[in-house]
Amino acid sequence: MATSGIAHAQDGAHMMTLAEVRQRRAELAGLFVRVENVTISGFSMARGGLASDSSGGVRLDDSGMPTDTISYLERNCAKPGTSASTACRGALEFTVAATHGAFTISDAQFIPQR
Asked: 63-114: per-residue pLDDT in tens?
């Protein structure tokens, strides 16, 4: 889909993989991105969870997440190793934070795969 760098989703989000976001987060800070084909596992409000795609995994924090997203993830993606579950596959949309240190996704919206 992307022939010259970052492709754009219909909603204006930059389409990327988790590895691309992690590697380029300094230059992407403040941009709205969408990562598709993400699997969420081990999610709880107390500790977040793990978001992974074919390029790797990253911590997912519930900070700034809509309550309906938190409820959905806790109900469907709480057990570690739920990667086979279609309830925990979908897309993440978030604004890349300009933080240093470990890369964690927060303030995200999860769109389940149908």
From this structure: 889 999 999 999 999 876 544 466 799 999 999 987 777 788 888 999 998 7
Residues 25-55: tens digit of each pLDDT: 999 999 999 999 999 999 988 889 999 999 9
DSSP symbols for 6-39: -EE-TTSPEEE-HHHHHHTHHHHTT-EEEEEEEE
In CATH, what number is assigned to the domain containing residue 108?
2.40.50
Do the domain assignments include residue 22? yes
Neighbour-count burial of 31, counting CB atoms closer than 10 A to its CB (0-12 exposed, 13-18 middle, 19+ buried): middle
Copy the structure tokens of residue 49: 């969870």
| d(C-alpha 42, C-alpha 27), whole Å | 30
In a domain, 49, yes or no: yes
Domain that holds residue 85: 14-112
